[in-house]
């Protein structure tokens, strides 16, 4: 097992840890906002670390680029859906003025 | 060993999700479980080395059907004022139906397991004859050459499904996703940039899936589903609005796939003597044209099914 593989698997392990933490946060945290916080932050970093590890394992720049695009798309979708859910929740709780825009 | 663990997890997860989808106490939970079930199903197809099916299941089974179910749930909520009525089937009757279904499934499974194997299964036959075709992807070969008649009929079924949905359709305000925004509130700032990034990407993706379908996983159904997802996105963000009646162009696009496929099949009747056999040397361009037409028709049909309207118009 060479250095690259060790680094890659460590990154994947740390990334999985972030996913686990995010899932536990989603299940255990009170309220919409803290749950969203736990979920999106952990997912973004966790997926990023996973992608980084997998890119090292793949060993081809082309595959690494595709993985990076997947991560970027997940970031984009995660950001916007988190924003929309938080905005909706804020408005439901009566924070109408602050929810603009 | 690792694979074995992964597969058992997938199978157990699939069964559990299926059970949750039908037995959840609330409809919303059932819908969410069904969407996750679709994603698991797609993973299972990927594990079974069937990427075409995995793509179609993820795009249509989980994505579009999930969106359809969610919008149907919203329409139900609006009608029943936040509380859905209890299902009217009594528990003993439901149990009886379940037992009968399990019996029927058991008998069918037993028959399938005991039936003697065929000498040359159709799949192996098709793989052996792939060299005669102009396309390299066996799935596309089966769909558009060996089993072209079935695919033609499937297109007819899809069109009939849309017509059926239109026949029982309700006024626009009761069907499909509701209005995008409450009056007096501005659009969230992130929506426009997301659309600006996603729209070209989705079009590119659909084009790639269509083009790659001749030699790699992909094809008209997957590309059409991805394009339909674009329609869903635009409809949900209010970029296109529903209309009661469809325009001439929309009707033409809806039947385009069926029409082009039929004409291509009739060409074979003229040149080769029987339906759906493409003229020698022309099969690659014909398959490409047919696939493109199929993609457009599938995309519009699925988008209109989601929208719950006869047509779509641009603008606010």
UniProtKB/TrEMBL annotation, chain A:
Give the record's keywords alphabetically. Answer: Membrane, Transmembrane, Transmembrane helix
The cross-references to InterPro entries, in alphabetical order and at most eight, read: PhaG_MnhG_YufB
Signal peptide feature range: none
The GO molecular function terms of this record are: sodium:proton antiporter activity
Question: Which Pfam families has this protein been placed in?
Answer: PhaG_MnhG_YufB
Transmembrane regions: 6-30, 42-62, 68-90
Keyword Transcription listed? The answer is no
- Protein name (record): Multisubunit sodium/proton antiporter MrpG subunit
